[in-house]
Every structure is written in structure tokens, then in C-alpha cells.
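Entry type: protein chain
Record version: 2
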Amino acid sequence: TSCQRHPESVVQKPIMKIQYIITASVLVAVTAAKPHHLHRRAHARGPAKRGTIFVPAAVETEIVYWLDDHEISEEEVNLGITNGTLMWGNDGVLSTSTSSPIALPTPPPASGHETQVPKPTPGPTSEKPVDEHKPVVPEFQKPASPPETPPIDPAPSPSQDTPPVQQSGTSSRPWADMVDKDGHCAECDRKFPDGTILCTEFPYGYGALPTAQEGLGGWSGIQDPQYAGADGFDDITTVPKGSCSDGTCCTTGSFCSYGCPNPYLKASFPSIQGRTGQSVGGLYCNKDGFLEMADGKIADTLCVQGSQHMGVKVQNKLSKSVSFCRTDYPGTESMTFPVTVGPGETGFLANPDQQKYFFWQGKKTSAQYYVNKQGVPESEACTWGTPMGGKGNWAPAVFGTSFDDGPASQGFSSIKQNELCKQERLGYDITFVGDGVVSPCRYKSATNQWCEGDTCWEDPDRGCTAGIKHGDLMIVLSDG
């Protein structure tokens, strides 16, 4: 499975494994918030050893592959590896980026008013919820009948004689072009017009920026919950990478996620989330086939600016470009939102206020970035990577950041070794600097040490964390 664990959330990724299921994780500590959200991706068992048959002269082991509680053939496994929907994980397990072998079709758009919750399937999964405290939710309805959900008041769908908004300027632009030198994005201030843009079109012109490397028509991820109840979503189908370069995979009932230029964050996600901890985010495709803000939105715009108490920037003093790749959260939590800084350049990173952004099961969350080696192309750095390939979710380090805008009134930023990729090294130094930085954090590539202030250690699992009282945190990348 991917070596990803994002602060305080859970997403789906099936795992085929011998005899048991495991969820791999990587923790990015942000002290006060203690981000520890698990990425649960729908599980698949296999290859499972059915048994050992003893005969007088030999021992035979029959290998059986299981996915979603049913047997699949070796031919299907090989085909999955060939077409990229299955891959070998770091510990020898076979994993897939989908929550089922293929994305399930959704019904065609229909007229009428609706809530932003697809109908539940007649039966929940047998998996037990994560044993953690959850916010109070309405009483669970029996799965035999559609559960009652909190009333949602989506924007009215356009009448049949209302033409869809005609999109313009639909060519992809560099992320940095959207933000001025002060970190302001003018397009991001535009209110999103619910119910006027077709789900098959990416919503250009409102601050959202496409992620071309995912092959989903600009969407960073598409999630289609097959179950929705008062207790949350489940059986969440994630459309595989490369499924629809024209964006037609964003269909009725789906949540279609998008990127925002740093230092901005996605503002649209549903009020209910995965009932076993999965996170879901993006614009909702209603039954009329039009996009609208999800009912849990925190603004009327697609993107919201990060903390105004504390800014985060990265400065590149190396000879090659470096990509910091933010996870799509809440959503598929793939590391698809890039900040790529060339030699001599400085770029912004998004840094949420804990009290104002997304809460996972009542807990505050932070932004997480995968930190790649210098010289790795952005298209390879900011997407799911090849196991042990040293990029993407296998990048050497992870960085987490947020500002506690509660009583603490302090930011926390942390960087550490990617726990499931301990053999990978960044190959350059990282130093936290800034007037308001307490116990500056450093990584020394020559000795592979992490430091806070004048104290250093070689424990890669510990990493280092800095407190930021005010102003900007500058992450400086330099040769050792």
C-alpha cells in the first residue's frame, strides 16, 4: 500500500495480501494538533494461501487471489499490474488505487430537487468503524430502507431553458501564475455559481486549477460513495488514475475534487464523511448533471486562503527544482497539489488555521506535503509513485503544518523521514528560519540528522518540529 499517512483523516486504498489486511501509515506530527489521521483505503485480500497439500514426495501450495471478498484470477492480477490499477507495495503486498476493481457507473442525470447524498445500498459493509471518538450523528437507520439524513439545502438546479455556463480559458496554467507576490489569488475570490457548470467540465475561472497528471480531466480525484446514511459514507469508489482525460468520470452522485493555488485550500467538502474514517471532498455532481458546492462548504468560493497569522514559504538554493506535493484532503488524499520551486525561487505553501478548516471526527487537521528529491519532474513527484521509487508517496520526507488559532495562538510545522521509505535520502539540507520561529528545525543531509535548535539526533522516526509565534516560516533548501 502507499506509504502515506495524512494528519487526521482516512481514505480508501484496497490491499491484496496474504491472510490479513494492513493499513500502512506515516505520521507527520504537528505537536498541539497531534495529526494522526489514518488513510484507510478499501481493503482487498490476497494472494491468500488456501492451504498446503501434503503428498508423499512433495509439498504443493495453491495461491488464491482475493479482492473485495471474492476470488480473482492470476490473469486479472497480471492485467491489473500491466494497466497500472494494481501494483506491488513495499512489503510485497499487491495494492490498487481503487476501492473496487472498476468504478461503478452512476445513473444518468434526472430532473427534480435532491439532497447531496446518493441513496444507500441495501446493506452496510461488515467492517467495524474505527474505534475512536466520533461526533454525535443522527440515529442510524436500518440499511433495508434509505436512512434519514440531516436536511441539506443545495442551490436550485437550473431550469431546462437555462444554458450551462460557457467555460473560457480552459488551458492549464502554472500554479504560480494565479498568485501574486503577496500570495493573493484574485480568481479565488469569485463566488462559485452552483448548478450552472456541467459536471463534465472543469470549473476554470474560480481559482481551481487542474491536475493534468491524474488523467481525470483536471480533477485531482473523483469519489462516488455507494452507501450514504446518517452514519456517513461507505463503499466509496475512487475512479482510477487515467480513466477519463476529458473529465467525463465526474458523474451524478460523485464528489469531484480540485486543487487550489498555494497558499489557498479547497473549501468544498460534504458535512458527513466516511463512516469508518474515510475523508471525502470536492464539488458535488447533482442528479441534473451540474456542479455545486458540497453542503459542508466553508465558503461560497472554491478556494479559501490559509492562515493569516502565519505564512509558510519554501526557498530553493539548490541547482535543480524541488517539488513539495500537498495531499488532496479531505478527498482521495493523493499527493497531487504541487509547489515546484526552481533554483533561486521562493514559493508559498498552504497552512490552515486549525479552528477554521476541516475537522476529522471532531479533531483539528493540518496540511501535509511530500518532499521530493531535487530534479524530479513535477508530473512524477506529485502523483502516486512506483514502490521504492523515491518519489510521489515514496518521496524521502513528509512535512506537516498548521496554525493553532485557539488559546495557543501558535503555529506548528514538522518535517520527518517518510517512515515506509527509510532507505531514501533527500540529498540536501533543510532549515527552518524566521523571526517568530521557536527552536528552528533542521535536516543535515551529510550526517542524516534532525535538529531542533542546537540539539541533533539520528532517529529518522522522530523528525523535528518548530513552533511559530508570528510572521512567516521560511523553509530553506540548500546543499549540505
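Comment: Helices lie at 74-83, 378-381.
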